[in-house]
Amino acid sequence: EFNAVDSDLPAEHWGNFYRAYSNDASGALSHAENVCRGFIESGAMAKAKARGIVENLDSSRPFLSRFEFIEALAALSATFPKDMNRKVTGANKRVAHILWRATDPDRAAWLFNNSRRVLALLPSGTSSNEALHAEVKNWFSETQQIHQSTLCLKLLMLTLGKQIPHFLAMAHPTISQCASRVLLARAVANSPWTDVARQSWCSELSHEAHVEKAALPYNESHAEGVSKVRSWNMKRPAAVKKSHFKRTVFTLKRLSKLRTQGTRTCR
Asked: Which candidate in 53, 70, 109, 216 could, as Cys together with 25 as Cys, close a disulfide (CB 3.0–4.6 Å)?
């Protein structure tokens, strides 16, 4: 329900965006909220009331308040007590305790941030209508004549191309920074990786194996040319002649026959 949107409610209904350093969106729990929060772990809510709340839950409608969110979790805890007593893998905590911690003021404020972020993606005023007209005009700027059936098919495909990236941006808010055409290309393109290719590539990256160089068509001719250039350089007199060796106090020739420990005699 945190991904759902109620177009009848203004943006001011959800308050400011919570950023953890301000307590505007996360205040202390009220007495009614504390009572319902205690019902999450104990499951003490009345069965008839809990069953009615669960049956009236609508996934297309967002939670309008923090109390409604806590009350829904308390109703789920009272309706499904066996599931609440199970332990979560990894955390080794009961499901009821995990849900109880989710109703903490700070955690609940982070969850309601999703509803606030979805509102930021929605158009305001007449901007959506104007943007749609401009985009449709761009689509058909070079089209002079078109059949009605072709027009319907083209509009259907272009509408689908608009809905796919918009849905991805709503489901994953972090990728909403990408361009619409980039999201559409990533969504409809086929991955070049198959299961066999990915497994073979991962096996090459393991510690036991080493990544080999790619077998390019001109590797052999290039290696042959490199060897010829090196052999020609070695034929020059400057390459055969021994270069001057710089002598320092540590590399002087030994004149005495007295051998010092750890050094060799110079011949």
From this structure: 109
